[in-house]
Design goal:
mainly alpha; 3 strands; 8% strand; binds zinc ion
Length: 171
């Protein structure tokens, strides 16, 4: 599953419009063995998708939609912008399982990259305007990668209907 998600992610990354590419960013995609429907990305590119998110998607385009949305947050430097503005982070509960996945994975570097923002950065709550921007750029990335961008909206409907994690749309 890791390889599959990584392949989809790579196809999305090459579809990022040139003006939103940043030399120092390294996108990576890891599956977290959690059934909650959730996904998040850290400033600079590391993304984590719960198994529950992948299982809830009815097709590849829907999974890609969530990933494209998260890639857009990163490409638009939303985490960094939010941190530098000194806005309050919404800090969610970080379970040992997620932390274990992060520490055990690719990701001493992930912790290092994220640490300047504190662990709260893992569960950044973005403003409505940032969400709108991520939807727009994410849809553009999807289309360039050959997916139907409408599947992003369909996936967010599934997420909202599941109500497993009401906060998920904030990420
Ligand atoms: Zn978002």
């Amino acid at each position: 599953m890791d390889d599959y998600v990584e392949d989809v992610g790579e196809n999305l990354v090459v579809a990022i419009p040139a003006e939103f590419r940043h030399a120092g960013f390294r996108y990576s995609f890891d599956v977290v063995n959690q059934k909650q429907i959730n996904a998040f990305a850290l400033p600079g590119g590391p993304m984590f998708l719960n198994r529950g998110m992948i299982e809830a998607a009815r097709n590849e385009a829907q999974m890609a939609g969530v990933m494209a949305h998260e890639i857009a947050h990163v490409a638009l430097r939303h985490g960094t912008a939010q941190a530098t503005k000194g806005q309050t982070f919404q800090i969610g509960a970080i379970t040992g399982q997620i932390l274990g996945a992060i520490v055990g994975g690719t990701a001493g570097t992930v912790i290092a990259q994220g640490s300047q923002f504190g662990l709260g950065a893992y569960f950044l709550k973005y403003s409505r305007e940032y969400e709108r921007q991520a939807d727009l750029l994410g849809a553009q990335i999807m289309a360039r990668a050959g997916y139907d961008p409408r599947e992003m909206a369909n996936m967010f409907k599934i997420i909202q209907a599941s109500r497993v994690d009401a906060a998920v749309r904030s990420g």
